[in-house]
Write a structure and sequence with these properties.
Keywords (chain B): Glycosyltransferase, RNA-binding, Transcription, Transcription regulation, Transcription termination, Transferase
Shape of chain B: globular
Number of domains of chain C: 2
Number of strands of chain C: 21
Protein name (chain B): Bifunctional protein PyrR
Order of helices and strands of chain B: EHEHEEHEEEHE
Radius of gyration of chain C: 20 Å
CATH topology of the largest domain in chain C: Rossmann fold
CATH superfamily of the largest domain in chain C: Class I glutamine amidotransferase (GATase) domain
CATH topology of chain B: Rossmann fold
CATH class of the largest domain in chain C: Alpha Beta
Shape of chain C: globular
Chains: A alpha/beta, B alpha/beta, C alpha/beta
Strand content of chain C: 25-35%
Helix content of chain C: 10-25%
Strand content of chain B: 25-35%
CATH class of chain B: Alpha Beta
CATH architecture of the largest domain in chain C: 3-Layer(aba) Sandwich
Radius of gyration of chain B: 16 Å
Strand order of the largest sheet of chain C: 10-12-11-13-14-21-20-19-16-17
Family (chain B): Belongs to the purine/pyrimidine phosphoribosyltransferase family. PyrR subfamily.
Structural class of chain B: alpha/beta
Oligomer: heterotrimer
Strand order of the largest sheet of chain B: 3-2-4-5-6
Structural class of chain C: alpha/beta
Number of helices of chain B: 4
Subunit structure (chain B): Homodimer and homohexamer; in equilibrium.
CATH architecture of chain B: 3-Layer(aba) Sandwich
Helix content of chain B: 25-40%
EC number (chain B): 2.4.2.9
């Protein structure tokens, strides 16, 4: 009998989270999962999320069951059985979740029962993605350009291949234990060492060696595909830097500017072909290399799962990539995707078009490490060194780039023009060939010293378009420098993305004067809406960036608006905690019926998710940018991170209602060896101080004590504003303890606001919405239930058997530091692990 | 054994689309039309054509299937069993029948199907639609609608795969 | 040098001049595609029009020999936000600035193009002029100017020519043909004859074509002489026929359908087009000022094969009784996605079928 193809309807879905933050994974997995939960819940799916990341918002979402468990095969199996899961969606958890799910599938036994469906990619295709060579063989057979490669298991085989393919070669681990790293070998001397190193990174001691294609252009294409093979291109971006530098460490530009239409269309067609080939239902990032001389296109990486580009494209284009991808994975057709009212009804099926330029700049940890006298290898290559990234939005490349530099690198010493002037000519050439983090400034410096565009283009393999743009920037700088505070050069400088502060430096004045001058000459930003139709349709516009043109599209939000200044790009030690706390703040203020406005430039966390705020400004966070938004919006209150002293002072001067995020910029240094640091945590509601729990910190790990605290101990502390605080002291204890004797408050301790990382940790460990409560306290909206809750907490101290452990980041691989790093201070991320027994695991 | 894909999913879809348009053209619309799929894959193809006609004309075209494996003149144990369910025996009298098969080769399958159909009733006309015509006819039979002409050698085999049955859409030459 | 764009409704936009310093008049439209500015500027369908690019930076890829859609562009102006300077050297002999100078076309950059596009999406296309000075004279000139409706005459070939190949004999009737169509026909090794649109049925049929293509072209199809419709009316019953763009509009008119001018034209490549029969969607370059009035469509003669899912307009039609079909969008890309390339494959299959049955 004839039957149409039917699929078993999916009801209970398990999302596997991305786990702890590290090189290559910031907050994007969690942001993606967090964003789609309410929609999927609304569509009738029952969702469970598993993760062990303390900064996970998804685990706290009311739209899903959050399970805080270590990401292991056994735990996933158990959750599937306990929750009667019928489908698993690993693709939003990135490559780590894919590996885990692939392993679960491999280890699934008959007695485990019916294996859940694998959403987004069938288990077999997912397995193939996990094993790169099989996939590339298929691509090769389908006639796509791939580089010659082979898998080897011994040094002898490697040497054989070396003779066959010749240097430079890309060497990478097959079935890697951790994240994938590709290393490019261009010196014979390094070959043996790298092969050995990579072999150790492989579960199976297998090494993939491929011909390197350094110097070619690198282009990223992001596409979605539905169950019926309908494909849509979300967008494409080009790296300014050629292949050879990790894409995360490159300056990247969207839309693509220097590649012709026929080449772009070929890449698009290839991306669609690959999506069809693997039967993808969801989003996929394909990286291509393009050889301008031969016209040949190579596929260099296929990522049919959520990675940073997906989130970034969503912010850059206004296309809701994650909402669409998740629904496609559920088997919904592209034409039937449901979007909330905030989107134009045709948004899901229209390819987004950008009428603005976005530049992404990586953020490197070198400056922070330098300040601690740690020297690392700064040379950029195929191994990622950046820890975060920031976006600059503009209507020209120069404007977007200047804004990206200001977003990514403010307060970074190596980004000062003065530092560049000190670089010798020899060093300059060296660094042009072996680029470092200050790449852009170096290129500018080379142009300043009279190097020709052709010459530089050949030396660096960077398209000459970029050099013409940088030359323009130099000319603008020069004319600003030579002019004397005139309106025309001021307008030109502002149009090119300069901050008031930078212009002030040229004119030996302060930013306030530049600001006044600009206003008196009517040089005022016009905010352009960022929306996916490039002006073709009126959209529900809520995302804006500043430029200096004729029409301003941003209407101020009415009364009761709160402006929240975002934390910007990730930096070491921050982890994802600042993004977590900012998002909680947005969510809670929204719940309290405030109109919220966020300013930020980091697409790798949840702070810019459209549903979290009423309006988003995609801007640098320097004083002049903030002041312009304040001038327009006249917010009821402004929430500013505590480390932004200059901004706080400037806003206070203007009689703005400033609420300071009591931000601890970095995790403090770890206690000395043999010592423990104790934090007595308490909540001050403005009247009463409620002790919560004592936390013991030893290098790289924190645990909670089971100790009742008498509130008398902290009664005498003098606090000016409500919030979460910690009393800190150290003791010579080198084991984990359940109880500790309290110190003399006046002598041995100090007081600080609770770091965000601890707020996230305690929220999950104690099952109390501490983040939300502290926001309520800031705006004086604590309710009776909160106070009761707090009173109860003080009386009841079980603690919880969850430890927060710093990520085991492979600094040796990424940064090659000259001494060991303080894993607390330079934390990349953390995870929560049970420390007594699996049964005591903190299930929500 | 190297298989060569001669029609991929996309071109197979397009071939079916074109056949559908041509059926409409020839038949002046969907009136009095019945699609008869020859089992196994012809049946799926007939349904796909019917789905397409429905998308275009908002009419439901009846589809029936016949199994002629036991009905061919080159089968020694040929029987008069069409494998039809009783409720599937549509009244084909005065209807325009389009017989749908995956591959047209010697013509013997088609002939068997024609014999069978004429036993059931007296249609107005019978036309033949095939996804692939590979040549080497042994009987005077010609397809009215051809998705793709694929000249083949006698010793080659054509393998048609349909998503509903084989998990994918493709036509391959098997050496 | 500062120059200005004046719209018929009196709105003025200012920017910096590039390209030729000429003063021109034309109908202003906007384009939302993010690639292929050279192909777009050289596409004859934009004869007599001024194009505003939504793409904020235009020119970064220079001008390439393989990206011409016609030898000489006949647009009246190019308006961009940011003009990318690129050198002219051995690899790139031309850049956009020099290219426009050479063809005496004025350009304007540093224009708030987003504001202009948001304005035009409300008003629809209108008359406009690019001038050095905004004064009463310039405005009067604009008001007094009557734009030509002879765009097809301006761009289509007056004489027949051949583009030989070894395959099927395809006759292209030229209404302002874009090169992309010839490029694809070359891929099929077709033996191509391009005929002027003033050709007659006899001239076409004596050449013994295996298939006919009604080409793309500029302007309003209703401005063309009735002889064109007569020609198509006969040809569509004789040989397989494919209409593209203007050719599609003409096939519709020939078979009794009426056209409607769009309130705001659509020029871009981001609208989903659905093939109705398979429900599949794809994207293709579109450039259209007219759509078929669906109420006028005689369902006994024609049916709709494709539609734009954003505005539900008919994007493809097919005759019921003959192998003649047409698409509004450009299946050859140039610029634009290649997903609709299959339209040509279908056409050639139809041609092959026709040839086989008639031999």
């Amino acid at each position: 009998m004839y039957k149409k193809i039917t699929e078993t309807p999916v009801e209970k879905v398990l999302f596997i989270g991305g786990g702890e933050t590290d090189f290559g994974l910031q907050g994007e997995s969690d942001a993606a999962i967090y964003q789609v939960l309410p929609i999927l819940n609304g569509l009738g799916y029952t969702i469970t999320v598993v993760d062990d990341n303390p900064y996970s918002l998804a685990l706290e979402s009311p739209a899903a069951t959050g399970i805080l468990k270590t990401l292991t095969v056994a735990n996933i199996k158990k959750i599937i059985q306990d929750q009667q899961i019928d489908a698993v969606y690993p693709l939003f958890g990135g490559i780590r979740a894919i590996r885990l799910w692939d392993q679960v599938v491999a280890e699934w036994r008959l007695e485990d029962g019916q294996i859940p469906q694998s959403l987004g990619l069938a288990a077999a295709d997912l397995h193939q993605i996990n094993n790169g060579t099989q996939l590339f063989q298929r691509l090769d057979e389908a006639g796509l350009g791939v580089t010659a490669s082979a898998v080897i298991q011994t040094q002898d085989e490697a040497n054989e291949l070396l003779r066959e393919l010749e240097l430079p070669l890309v060497v990478r681990a097959q079935k890697p234990i951790q994240g994938t790293t590709r290393q490019i070998v261009d010196r014979l001397d390094d070959f043996d060492r790298v092969v050995q190193q990579v072999m150790d990174q492989s579960l199976t001691n297998e090494v993939l060696i491929a011909k390197a294609i350094n110097g070619l252009k690198e282009i990223s294409v992001l596409v979605v595909r539905d169950r019926d093979g309908n494909c849509l291109q979300v967008g494409a971006a080009e790296d300014m830097d050629p292949i050879g530098i990790h894409t995360a460490d490159s300056l990247s530009v969207a839309p693509v500017l220097t590649i012709s239409d026929p080449v772009m269309q070929k890449m698009r067609a290839q991306a669609f072909l690959i999506a069809n080939m693997i039967g993808l239902k969801g989003v996929m990032h394909v990286q291509f290399a393009y050889d301008e001389k031969t016209g040949k296109i190579y596929v260099i990486k296929v990522s049919p799962y959520l990675d940073q580009l997906a989130n970034r494209m969503a912010v850059m284009t206004g296309y809701p990539v994650m909402l669409v991808a998740a629904q496609l994975a559920m088997g919904i057709r592209l034409t039937n995707v449901y979007l909330p009212n905030a989107f134009h009804q045709k948004t899901a099926i229209m390819e987004p078009v950008m009428d603005h330029i976005v530049v992404k700049l990586p953020v490197f940890p070198f400056g922070d490490l330098d300040a601690s006298n740690i020297t690392v290898n700064r040379q950029l290559n195929s191994v990622q060194k950046s820890v975060g990234s920031a976006l600059g939005f503009g209507r020209t490349f120069v404007e977007a780039m200047e804004k990206a530099i200001r977003s990514a690198h403010f307060n970074n010493r190596s980004f000062s023009p003065k530092y560049m002037a000190d670089v010798s000519d020899d060093e300059l050439i060296q660094q042009l060939i072996h680029p470092q983090d200050n790449r852009v400034l170096l290129l500018i410096e080379a142009l300043r010293r009279g190097y020709e565009v052709d010459e530089l283009a050949e030396l660096t393999n960077i398209d000459e378009f970029y050099f013409y743009q940088l030359k323009r920037l130099i000319e603008i700088e020069r004319s600003v420098d030579q002019s004397n505070k005139d309106a025309q050069s001021l307008r030109m400088a502002k149009k090119s993305g300069f901050s008031d502060g930078l212009i002030a430096r040229f004119w030996d004045t302060d930013f306030q004067e530049v600001r006044q001058l600009a206003r008196s000459h009517d040089v005022i930003p016009t905010y352009k809406a960022l929306e996916p139709s490039a002006g073709e349709f009126p959209e529900h516009e809520r995302q804006f960036f500043a430029t200096f043109e004729e029409e301003n599209e941003s209407e101020p939000v009415d009364n009761q608006s709160v402006l929240i200044i975002g934390p910007g790009a990730f930096r070491m030690g921050d982890g994802v905690s600042a993004g977590y706390m900012t998002s909680i703040t947005l969510s809670e203020l929204h719940r309290l019926d405030y109109q919220t406005i966020i300013m930020n430039n980091n697409a790798a966390d949840s702070t810019l998710l459209p549903h979290l705020s009423d309006k988003q400004y995609l801007e640098p966070l320097e004083t002049s940018d903030v002041m312009s938004v304040v001038d327009l919006e006249k917010p009821h209150a402004i929430l500013v991170p505590g480390n932004r002293k200059k901004l706080i002072a400037a806003l206070t001067d203007l009689n703005q209602n400033v609420i300071v995020f009591p931000k601890e910029k970095h995790h403090p240094a770890r206690p000395e060896a043999g010592q423990s640091e104790f934090c007595l945590n308490f909540f001050y509601d403005g009247q009463t101080k409620h002790p919560l729990v004592i936390l013991q910190q030893r290098p790289g790990e924190s645990r909670l004590l089971k100790q009742k605290i008498n509130s008398d101990f902290i009664d005498d502390l003098d606090l000016s504003s409500p919030g979460l605080y910690q009393v800190i002291w150290r003791a010579d204890i080198d084991t984990w303890v359940d109880q500790v004797s309290l110190p003399n408050l006046t002598v041995d301790t100090w007081l600080r606001p609770m770091p965000y990382g601890h707020i996230a940790y305690l929220t999950k460990a104690l099952g109390m919405p501490l983040g939300r409560m502290v926001v309520r306290a800031w705006v004086d909206k604590l309710n009776e239930a909160d106070r009761k809750f707090l009173a109860k907490m003080a009386a009841n101290h079980e603690g919880a058997s969850l430890a927060m452990v710093t990520s085991d980041t492979d600094y040796a691989l990424h940064l090659q530091p000259d001494k060991s790093l303080d894993m607390t201070r330079f934390e990349m991320g953390a995870k929560l692990v049970p420390f007594e027994s699996e049964q005591a695991d903190g299930e929500k | 054994m190297a298989n060569k894909v001669v029609l991929d999913q996309d071109s197979m879809q397009r071939a079916l689309t074109r056949i559908t348009y041509e059926i409409l053209e020839r038949n002046k619309g969907g009136q009095n039309l019945i699609l008869v799929g020859i089992k196994t894959r012809g049946e799926y193809l007939a349904h796909r054509i019917a789905d397409r006609l429905e998308q275009l004309e908002q009419v439901q075209i009846p589809v029936m299937a016949i199994d002629v494996t036991n009905y061919r003149d080159d089968h020694l144990d040929a029987k008069d069993d069409l494998g039809l369910e009783p409720d599937e025996k549509l009244n084909i009298a005065n209807q325009n029948i389009v017989l749908v098969d995956d591959v047209l080769f010697t013509g013997r399958t088609t002939r068997a199907a024609l014999d069978a159909l004429i036993q059931i009733g007296r249609p107005q006309a019978i036309a033949l639609a095939v996804l692939v015509d590979r040549g080497h006819r042994e009987l005077p039979i010609r397809a009215d609608f051809v998705g793709k002409n694929i000249p083949t050698a006698q010793n080659e085999k054509i393998k048609v795969k349909v998503k509903e049955f084989d998990g994918e859409d493709s036509v391959e030459i098997v050496h | 040098m500062e120059r200005h764009l004046i719209l018929e409704d009196g709105t003025v936009f200012s920017g910096q001049g590039f390209g030729a310093p000429a003063t021109t008049f034309g109908e202003i439209i906007f384009d939302t595609a993010t690639s292929g500015y050279q192909e777009t500027i050289t596409n004859p369908i934009y004869d007599g029009q001024m194009i505003v690019f939504a793409m904020p930076v235009v020119g970064a890829d220079g001008i390439h020999a393989e990206a011409y859609e016609s030898t000489a562009p006949t647009v009246r102006g190019v308006i961009v936000h940011d003009l990318a300077e690129v050198s002219t050297n051995r690899q790139r002999r031309m850049n956009l600035d020099r290219f426009l100078q050479h063809h005496n076309i004025p350009g304007l950059y540093e224009v708030d193009t987003r504001k202009l596009i948001r304005h035009l999406r409300e008003t629809g296309p209108q008359k406009a002029t690019i001038v050095d000075v905004v004064d009463d004279h310039a405005v009067d000139q604009l008001v007094a100017t009557v734009l030509t409706n002879k765009q097809v005459q301006n761009t289509a070939t007056p004489k027949a020519y051949a583009n030989p190949g070894h395959g099927f004999h395809i006759i292209v009737i030229d209404f302002g043909l874009k090169n992309g169509i010839l490029r694809v026909l070359g891929d099929y090794d077709a033996n191509v004859t391009v005929l002027p649109y003033t050709t007659t049925v006899d001239e076409v049929l004596t050449l013994d074509p295996d298939g006919i293509i009604l080409s793309t072209g500029p302007g309003n199809p209703e401005d063309l002489p009735d002889s064109v419709l007569t020609l198509i009316r006969v040809l569509q019953t004789k040989v397989p026929l494919l209409g593209i763009g203007l050719g599609h509009e003409l096939l519709a008119l020939t078979n009794g359908a009426a056209l409607q001018a769009l309130p705001a034209e659509y020029h871009g490549m981001n609208h989903p087009i659905q093939e109705i029969i398979s429900q599949q969607i794809f994207y293709a370059r579109q450039g259209r000022g007219y759509v078929i009035d669906m109420d006028s469509l005689d369902n006994k003669k024609l049916f709709v094969t494709h539609r734009d899912l954003v505005d539900n307009s008919a994007q493809g039609i097919r005759l019921r009784d003959y192998p003649a079909f047409s698409v509004q969008f450009f299946p050859d890309g140039a610029p634009g996605p290649l997903e609709a390339n299959g339209i040509f494959a279908d056409f050639f299959e139809t041609v092959a079928d026709y040839v086989q049955k008639n031999n």
